[in-house]
Amino acid sequence: MGHIIGKDIYRQLGQKVDNTTVRMPWSEPLHKLLKSLYSPGEADLIVRMPYRPSSISRIAEITGMDGRKLRPMLENMCSKGLVCDMWEKDEYQYMISPFVIGFFEFTMMRTGDNLDSKKWAELFQSYMFGDSSFIDANFGDGQQISVMRAIPHEETIREVDHVEILDYEKASALIAEQDLFAVGLCSCRHEKMHLGKQGCDVDLETCTSMGDAAQFLIRNKFAREIPRGEMLDILARSKDMGFTLSTDNVKQNAGFICHCCGCCCNLMQGIKYSGYPGMLVSSSFIASCDVESCNGCGLCVKACPIDAISLCENAGVKYAEINTKLCLGCGVCALKCKTGSLQMDKRTQKVIHPEDSFERVILQSLERGTLQNLIFDNPNSRSESFMRAVVGGFLKLSPVKKGLMSETLRSRFLSAIKSKG
Q1: 220 and 317 in one domain?
Q2: How many CB atoms lie within 10 A of CB 313?
Q3: Spatial separation of the C-alpha atoms in residues 286 and 40, rounded to whole Å
Protein backbone atom coordinates (compact mmCIF):
# COMPACT_ATOMS: atom_id res chain seq x y z
CA MET A 1 0.00 0.00 0.00
CA GLY A 2 3.02 2.26 -0.38
CA HIS A 3 1.32 4.11 -3.24
CA ILE A 4 -1.10 5.62 -0.69
CA ILE A 5 1.65 7.85 0.73
CA GLY A 6 1.59 11.36 -0.63
CA LYS A 7 -2.08 11.53 -1.61
CA ASP A 8 -5.16 12.44 0.42
CA ILE A 9 -6.80 9.04 0.33
CA TYR A 10 -9.63 10.19 2.59
CA ARG A 11 -10.58 13.00 0.24
CA GLN A 12 -10.74 10.41 -2.55
CA LEU A 13 -12.79 8.14 -0.28
CA GLY A 14 -15.16 11.04 0.35
CA GLN A 15 -15.60 11.52 -3.38
CA LYS A 16 -16.26 7.80 -3.80
CA VAL A 17 -18.96 7.50 -1.15
CA ASP A 18 -20.50 10.77 -2.35
CA ASN A 19 -21.14 9.04 -5.68
CA THR A 20 -23.25 6.22 -4.23
CA THR A 21 -27.03 6.24 -3.64
CA VAL A 22 -26.70 8.70 -0.73
CA ARG A 23 -24.84 11.94 -1.38
CA MET A 24 -22.12 12.86 1.11
CA PRO A 25 -20.86 16.41 0.50
CA TRP A 26 -17.30 17.00 1.70
CA SER A 27 -16.66 18.74 5.00
CA GLU A 28 -14.18 18.57 7.83
CA PRO A 29 -16.63 16.52 9.99
CA LEU A 30 -16.82 13.98 7.14
CA HIS A 31 -13.03 13.89 6.93
CA LYS A 32 -12.81 13.10 10.66
CA LEU A 33 -15.56 10.48 10.39
CA LEU A 34 -13.92 8.63 7.50
CA LYS A 35 -10.50 8.64 9.18
CA SER A 36 -12.08 7.16 12.31
CA LEU A 37 -13.85 4.34 10.45
CA TYR A 38 -11.47 3.36 7.62
CA SER A 39 -7.79 2.50 7.76
CA PRO A 40 -5.74 3.96 4.86
CA GLY A 41 -5.64 0.52 3.24
CA GLU A 42 -9.40 0.08 3.55
CA ALA A 43 -9.97 3.56 2.15
CA ASP A 44 -7.72 2.78 -0.82
CA LEU A 45 -9.61 -0.45 -1.55
CA ILE A 46 -13.01 1.32 -1.46
CA VAL A 47 -11.72 4.01 -3.83
CA ARG A 48 -10.63 1.37 -6.35
CA MET A 49 -13.64 -0.97 -6.00
CA PRO A 50 -16.47 -1.02 -8.57
CA TYR A 51 -19.75 0.57 -7.57
CA ARG A 52 -21.93 -2.44 -8.37
CA PRO A 53 -21.95 -5.67 -6.32
CA SER A 54 -19.08 -7.79 -7.66
CA SER A 55 -17.36 -11.10 -7.09
CA ILE A 56 -13.85 -11.28 -5.66
CA SER A 57 -12.50 -12.21 -9.09
CA ARG A 58 -14.02 -9.08 -10.66
CA ILE A 59 -12.83 -6.86 -7.80
CA ALA A 60 -9.33 -8.35 -8.14
CA GLU A 61 -9.35 -7.66 -11.88
CA ILE A 62 -10.50 -4.05 -11.47
CA THR A 63 -8.31 -3.15 -8.49
CA GLY A 64 -5.23 -5.11 -9.57
CA MET A 65 -5.07 -6.77 -6.15
CA ASP A 66 -4.43 -10.45 -5.42
CA GLY A 67 -7.73 -12.24 -4.74
CA ARG A 68 -6.14 -14.24 -1.92
CA LYS A 69 -5.35 -11.00 -0.08
CA LEU A 70 -8.68 -9.43 -0.99
CA ARG A 71 -10.89 -12.08 0.63
CA PRO A 72 -9.78 -11.63 4.28
CA MET A 73 -9.70 -7.86 3.81
CA LEU A 74 -13.24 -7.77 2.43
CA GLU A 75 -14.52 -10.14 5.11
CA ASN A 76 -13.02 -7.93 7.82
CA MET A 77 -14.61 -4.85 6.27
CA CYS A 78 -17.96 -6.67 6.18
CA SER A 79 -17.64 -7.29 9.92
CA LYS A 80 -17.21 -3.51 10.36
CA GLY A 81 -20.10 -2.65 8.04
CA LEU A 82 -17.91 -0.86 5.49
CA VAL A 83 -18.68 -3.45 2.80
CA CYS A 84 -21.81 -5.58 2.31
CA ASP A 85 -21.65 -9.22 1.18
CA MET A 86 -24.55 -10.94 -0.59
CA TRP A 87 -24.78 -14.58 -1.67
CA GLU A 88 -25.67 -14.75 -5.34
CA LYS A 89 -24.93 -17.23 -8.13
CA ASP A 90 -23.04 -19.60 -5.81
CA GLU A 91 -20.59 -16.96 -4.55
CA TYR A 92 -20.47 -13.79 -2.47
CA GLN A 93 -20.90 -10.46 -4.18
CA TYR A 94 -19.29 -7.52 -2.38
CA MET A 95 -20.55 -3.95 -2.49
CA ILE A 96 -19.42 -0.66 -0.99
CA SER A 97 -21.69 0.26 1.93
CA PRO A 98 -23.46 3.57 1.30
CA PHE A 99 -23.99 5.90 4.24
CA VAL A 100 -27.61 4.82 4.91
CA ILE A 101 -28.75 2.14 5.04
CA GLY A 102 -25.12 1.21 5.40
CA PHE A 103 -22.09 2.12 7.42
CA PHE A 104 -23.96 4.45 9.81
CA GLU A 105 -26.34 1.71 10.93
CA PHE A 106 -23.78 -1.10 10.90
CA THR A 107 -21.20 0.92 12.83
CA MET A 108 -23.69 1.81 15.56
CA MET A 109 -25.02 -1.78 15.67
CA ARG A 110 -21.58 -3.20 16.48
CA THR A 111 -21.07 -4.77 19.89
CA GLY A 112 -17.99 -5.96 21.73
CA ASP A 113 -14.97 -4.55 23.47
CA ASN A 114 -12.65 -1.72 22.41
CA LEU A 115 -15.16 0.02 20.16
CA ASP A 116 -15.17 3.83 19.89
CA SER A 117 -18.97 3.97 19.87
CA LYS A 118 -19.21 7.29 21.75
CA LYS A 119 -16.71 8.93 19.40
CA TRP A 120 -18.50 7.53 16.35
CA ALA A 121 -21.86 8.78 17.68
CA GLU A 122 -20.44 12.28 18.05
CA LEU A 123 -18.88 12.21 14.58
CA PHE A 124 -22.06 10.93 12.90
CA GLN A 125 -24.19 13.55 14.65
CA SER A 126 -21.76 16.33 13.75
CA TYR A 127 -21.78 15.36 10.09
CA MET A 128 -25.52 14.80 9.73
CA PHE A 129 -26.78 17.72 11.81
CA GLY A 130 -23.81 20.09 12.28
CA ASP A 131 -25.22 22.05 9.35
CA SER A 132 -27.80 21.39 6.66
CA SER A 133 -25.43 20.38 3.83
CA PHE A 134 -25.92 16.60 4.13
CA ILE A 135 -29.72 16.79 4.34
CA ASP A 136 -29.93 19.43 1.60
CA ALA A 137 -27.80 17.32 -0.75
CA ASN A 138 -30.20 14.39 -0.46
CA PHE A 139 -33.61 16.03 -0.02
CA GLY A 140 -33.28 19.75 -0.77
CA ASP A 141 -34.27 19.42 -4.42
CA GLY A 142 -37.63 17.76 -3.83
CA GLN A 143 -36.32 14.17 -3.94
CA GLN A 144 -39.09 11.60 -3.44
CA ILE A 145 -37.10 8.36 -3.13
CA SER A 146 -35.68 7.63 0.30
CA VAL A 147 -34.43 4.32 1.67
CA MET A 148 -37.30 3.88 4.14
CA ARG A 149 -41.07 4.24 4.25
CA ALA A 150 -43.61 4.38 7.05
CA ILE A 151 -46.03 1.49 7.63
CA PRO A 152 -49.48 2.30 9.06
CA HIS A 153 -50.65 0.53 12.20
CA GLU A 154 -53.31 -1.64 10.55
CA GLU A 155 -56.03 -1.18 13.15
CA THR A 156 -56.02 2.61 12.69
CA ILE A 157 -57.23 2.52 9.06
CA ARG A 158 -60.79 3.67 8.58
CA GLU A 159 -63.14 0.82 7.60
CA VAL A 160 -64.80 1.85 4.35
CA ASP A 161 -65.72 -0.33 1.41
CA HIS A 162 -63.43 1.18 -1.21
CA VAL A 163 -60.23 1.23 0.89
CA GLU A 164 -57.85 -1.71 0.58
CA ILE A 165 -54.66 -2.07 2.56
CA LEU A 166 -52.17 -4.04 0.51
CA ASP A 167 -49.87 -6.66 1.99
CA TYR A 168 -46.74 -4.52 1.54
CA GLU A 169 -48.42 -1.91 3.81
CA LYS A 170 -48.95 -4.42 6.63
CA ALA A 171 -46.17 -5.20 9.10
CA SER A 172 -47.90 -8.49 9.89
CA ALA A 173 -47.85 -9.52 6.21
CA LEU A 174 -44.17 -8.56 5.83
CA ILE A 175 -43.37 -10.85 8.75
CA ALA A 176 -45.63 -13.66 7.52
CA GLU A 177 -43.79 -13.98 4.20
CA GLN A 178 -40.37 -14.51 5.81
CA ASP A 179 -38.82 -17.41 7.75
CA LEU A 180 -35.63 -15.90 9.20
CA PHE A 181 -35.64 -13.05 11.72
CA ALA A 182 -33.01 -11.14 13.70
CA VAL A 183 -32.78 -8.31 16.20
CA GLY A 184 -29.87 -5.99 16.92
CA LEU A 185 -29.09 -2.64 18.45
CA CYS A 186 -31.10 0.26 17.09
CA SER A 187 -28.36 2.44 15.61
CA CYS A 188 -30.24 5.69 16.26
CA ARG A 189 -31.03 4.90 19.90
CA HIS A 190 -27.48 3.64 20.46
CA GLU A 191 -26.12 6.88 19.01
CA LYS A 192 -28.46 9.01 21.16
CA MET A 193 -27.52 7.02 24.28
CA HIS A 194 -23.86 7.93 23.81
CA LEU A 195 -24.83 11.56 23.16
CA GLY A 196 -26.95 11.66 26.32
CA LYS A 197 -30.04 12.44 24.21
CA GLN A 198 -32.06 9.22 24.35
CA GLY A 199 -35.51 10.42 25.37
CA CYS A 200 -37.10 6.97 25.71
CA ASP A 201 -36.34 4.08 28.03
CA VAL A 202 -36.89 1.28 25.52
CA ASP A 203 -34.30 -1.48 25.19
CA LEU A 204 -31.61 -0.61 22.62
CA GLU A 205 -32.03 -4.03 21.01
CA THR A 206 -35.05 -3.16 18.85
CA CYS A 207 -33.83 -3.16 15.23
CA THR A 208 -35.54 -6.13 13.55
CA SER A 209 -34.64 -7.64 10.20
CA MET A 210 -35.91 -10.47 8.00
CA GLY A 211 -34.82 -12.77 5.19
CA ASP A 212 -31.60 -11.93 3.31
CA ALA A 213 -31.02 -8.79 5.40
CA ALA A 214 -31.23 -10.85 8.59
CA GLN A 215 -28.74 -13.33 7.12
CA PHE A 216 -26.23 -10.55 6.46
CA LEU A 217 -26.61 -9.09 9.96
CA ILE A 218 -26.39 -12.47 11.70
CA ARG A 219 -23.42 -13.59 9.59
CA ASN A 220 -21.48 -10.43 10.41
CA LYS A 221 -22.52 -10.37 14.09
CA PHE A 222 -24.57 -7.18 13.95
CA ALA A 223 -27.68 -9.02 15.18
CA ARG A 224 -28.86 -12.28 16.72
CA GLU A 225 -31.39 -14.68 15.25
CA ILE A 226 -34.81 -14.70 16.90
CA PRO A 227 -37.94 -16.84 16.40
CA ARG A 228 -41.04 -15.50 14.70
CA GLY A 229 -42.77 -15.24 18.09
CA GLU A 230 -40.18 -12.78 19.42
CA MET A 231 -40.48 -10.76 16.22
CA LEU A 232 -44.23 -10.49 16.78
CA ASP A 233 -43.70 -9.59 20.46
CA ILE A 234 -41.46 -6.67 19.45
CA LEU A 235 -44.13 -5.54 16.98
CA ALA A 236 -46.79 -5.67 19.71
CA ARG A 237 -44.57 -3.69 22.09
CA SER A 238 -44.13 -0.98 19.45
CA LYS A 239 -47.88 -0.66 19.13
CA ASP A 240 -48.25 -0.36 22.92
CA MET A 241 -45.49 2.26 23.12
CA GLY A 242 -46.76 4.24 20.14
CA PHE A 243 -43.69 3.79 17.94
CA THR A 244 -43.72 4.50 14.22
CA LEU A 245 -43.11 1.41 12.11
CA SER A 246 -40.89 1.84 9.07
CA THR A 247 -39.35 -0.51 6.55
CA ASP A 248 -37.51 -0.74 3.23
CA ASN A 249 -38.99 1.63 0.69
CA VAL A 250 -39.94 -1.31 -1.54
CA LYS A 251 -43.07 -3.36 -2.17
CA GLN A 252 -41.33 -6.73 -2.50
CA ASN A 253 -39.03 -8.53 -0.06
CA ALA A 254 -38.66 -5.82 2.58
CA GLY A 255 -35.65 -6.66 4.72
CA PHE A 256 -36.31 -4.94 8.04
CA ILE A 257 -38.85 -3.27 10.30
CA CYS A 258 -37.72 -0.33 12.41
CA HIS A 259 -39.53 0.68 15.58
CA CYS A 260 -38.98 4.42 15.68
CA CYS A 261 -39.56 7.17 18.22
CA GLY A 262 -39.39 10.90 17.60
CA CYS A 263 -36.71 11.41 20.24
CA CYS A 264 -34.12 9.09 18.63
CA CYS A 265 -34.87 8.39 14.96
CA ASN A 266 -32.50 10.40 12.77
CA LEU A 267 -34.90 10.40 9.82
CA MET A 268 -37.77 11.80 11.87
CA GLN A 269 -35.48 14.26 13.61
CA GLY A 270 -34.27 15.26 10.17
CA ILE A 271 -37.84 16.00 9.08
CA LYS A 272 -38.34 18.24 12.12
CA TYR A 273 -34.92 19.86 11.62
CA SER A 274 -35.20 20.47 7.87
CA GLY A 275 -38.90 20.42 7.03
CA TYR A 276 -38.25 17.90 4.21
CA PRO A 277 -40.99 15.25 4.61
CA GLY A 278 -39.43 12.92 2.02
CA MET A 279 -36.67 11.81 4.39
CA LEU A 280 -39.05 9.07 5.52
CA VAL A 281 -41.48 8.26 2.71
CA SER A 282 -45.08 8.34 3.84
CA SER A 283 -47.42 5.39 3.65
CA SER A 284 -50.35 5.41 1.23
CA PHE A 285 -52.54 6.64 4.10
CA ILE A 286 -52.95 9.94 5.89
CA ALA A 287 -54.41 10.93 9.25
CA SER A 288 -57.74 12.71 9.33
CA CYS A 289 -59.72 14.06 12.24
CA ASP A 290 -63.49 14.06 12.78
CA VAL A 291 -63.78 17.53 14.29
CA GLU A 292 -67.26 16.92 15.67
CA SER A 293 -66.19 13.99 17.89
CA CYS A 294 -62.71 15.31 18.78
CA ASN A 295 -62.54 16.44 22.41
CA GLY A 296 -59.31 18.42 22.03
CA CYS A 297 -57.42 16.32 24.60
CA GLY A 298 -54.10 16.73 22.78
CA LEU A 299 -52.94 13.12 23.12
CA CYS A 300 -52.41 12.92 19.36
CA VAL A 301 -50.25 16.04 19.45
CA LYS A 302 -47.96 14.43 22.02
CA ALA A 303 -47.92 11.13 20.11
CA CYS A 304 -46.93 12.48 16.68
CA PRO A 305 -43.17 11.89 16.28
CA ILE A 306 -42.67 14.71 13.76
CA ASP A 307 -44.95 17.41 15.25
CA ALA A 308 -47.39 17.22 12.35
CA ILE A 309 -50.47 17.74 14.57
CA SER A 310 -51.53 20.87 16.44
CA LEU A 311 -54.57 21.86 18.50
CA CYS A 312 -56.80 24.51 17.03
CA GLU A 313 -59.69 26.36 18.64
CA ASN A 314 -62.85 27.70 17.05
CA ALA A 315 -65.69 29.27 19.05
CA GLY A 316 -64.20 27.79 22.23
CA VAL A 317 -64.00 24.27 20.80
CA LYS A 318 -60.58 22.62 20.53
CA TYR A 319 -59.78 20.03 17.87
CA ALA A 320 -56.77 18.42 16.21
CA GLU A 321 -55.48 19.72 12.89
CA ILE A 322 -53.19 17.63 10.66
CA ASN A 323 -50.32 19.11 8.66
CA THR A 324 -50.95 17.03 5.54
CA LYS A 325 -47.61 18.04 4.00
CA LEU A 326 -45.73 16.38 6.87
CA CYS A 327 -47.98 13.48 7.93
CA LEU A 328 -46.22 10.11 7.56
CA GLY A 329 -49.41 8.05 7.58
CA CYS A 330 -48.02 5.92 10.42
CA GLY A 331 -51.19 5.90 12.55
CA VAL A 332 -49.43 6.53 15.88
CA CYS A 333 -51.76 9.44 16.58
CA ALA A 334 -54.82 7.27 15.99
CA LEU A 335 -53.49 4.62 18.40
CA LYS A 336 -53.63 7.20 21.19
CA CYS A 337 -57.01 8.73 20.26
CA LYS A 338 -59.54 7.62 22.88
CA THR A 339 -62.58 8.99 21.05
CA GLY A 340 -61.77 7.37 17.69
CA SER A 341 -61.83 10.81 16.06
CA LEU A 342 -58.45 10.24 14.41
CA GLN A 343 -58.22 7.51 11.80
CA MET A 344 -56.21 6.82 8.66
CA ASP A 345 -57.70 7.45 5.22
CA LYS A 346 -56.32 6.54 1.79
CA ARG A 347 -54.28 9.35 0.27
CA THR A 348 -55.65 10.88 -2.90
CA GLN A 349 -52.13 11.60 -4.19
CA LYS A 350 -50.13 8.53 -5.16
CA VAL A 351 -46.92 7.83 -3.22
CA ILE A 352 -43.93 6.32 -5.03
CA HIS A 353 -42.99 3.00 -3.45
CA PRO A 354 -40.52 1.15 -5.74
CA GLU A 355 -41.30 -2.48 -6.52
CA ASP A 356 -37.98 -3.84 -5.24
CA SER A 357 -34.48 -2.85 -4.12
CA PHE A 358 -33.25 -2.71 -7.72
CA GLU A 359 -35.87 -0.10 -8.62
CA ARG A 360 -35.27 1.87 -5.43
CA VAL A 361 -31.52 2.06 -6.03
CA ILE A 362 -32.01 3.11 -9.67
CA LEU A 363 -34.57 5.81 -8.84
CA GLN A 364 -32.63 7.01 -5.81
CA SER A 365 -29.44 7.29 -7.90
CA LEU A 366 -31.29 9.07 -10.70
CA GLU A 367 -32.67 11.67 -8.28
CA ARG A 368 -29.26 12.26 -6.71
CA GLY A 369 -27.31 12.37 -9.96
CA THR A 370 -25.24 9.21 -9.44
CA LEU A 371 -26.93 6.68 -11.77
CA GLN A 372 -24.05 6.88 -14.26
CA ASN A 373 -21.76 5.32 -11.63
CA LEU A 374 -23.87 2.15 -11.56
CA ILE A 375 -23.97 1.94 -15.35
CA PHE A 376 -20.22 2.53 -15.81
CA ASP A 377 -18.96 1.28 -12.46
CA ASN A 378 -15.21 0.76 -12.97
CA PRO A 379 -13.54 3.75 -11.30
CA ASN A 380 -10.13 2.85 -12.78
CA SER A 381 -11.16 2.85 -16.46
CA ARG A 382 -10.53 6.02 -18.46
CA SER A 383 -13.12 5.13 -21.06
CA GLU A 384 -15.75 4.50 -18.38
CA SER A 385 -14.80 7.76 -16.64
CA PHE A 386 -15.53 9.57 -19.91
CA MET A 387 -18.87 7.79 -20.29
CA ARG A 388 -19.79 8.57 -16.68
CA ALA A 389 -19.18 12.25 -17.35
CA VAL A 390 -21.24 12.24 -20.57
CA VAL A 391 -24.17 10.21 -19.22
CA GLY A 392 -24.08 12.02 -15.86
CA GLY A 393 -24.29 15.40 -17.57
CA PHE A 394 -27.23 14.22 -19.68
CA LEU A 395 -29.15 12.75 -16.74
CA LYS A 396 -28.66 15.92 -14.69
CA LEU A 397 -30.57 17.99 -17.24
CA SER A 398 -33.78 19.02 -15.51
CA PRO A 399 -36.19 18.04 -18.35
CA VAL A 400 -34.54 14.62 -18.64
CA LYS A 401 -34.68 13.88 -14.92
CA LYS A 402 -38.26 15.11 -14.59
CA GLY A 403 -39.32 13.02 -17.56
CA LEU A 404 -37.71 9.82 -16.29
CA MET A 405 -39.17 10.32 -12.81
CA SER A 406 -42.67 10.98 -14.15
CA GLU A 407 -45.24 8.24 -13.81
CA THR A 408 -45.58 8.12 -17.60
CA LEU A 409 -41.95 7.23 -18.32
CA ARG A 410 -40.76 5.71 -15.04
CA SER A 411 -41.95 2.14 -15.64
CA ARG A 412 -40.61 2.07 -19.20
CA PHE A 413 -37.27 3.49 -18.05
CA LEU A 414 -36.93 0.90 -15.27
CA SER A 415 -37.93 -1.92 -17.62
CA ALA A 416 -35.26 -0.83 -20.07
CA ILE A 417 -32.62 -0.71 -17.32
CA LYS A 418 -33.63 -4.18 -16.05
CA SER A 419 -33.44 -5.69 -19.52
CA LYS A 420 -29.80 -4.57 -19.75
CA GLY A 421 -28.92 -5.98 -16.33
Answers
A1: yes
A2: 9
A3: 48
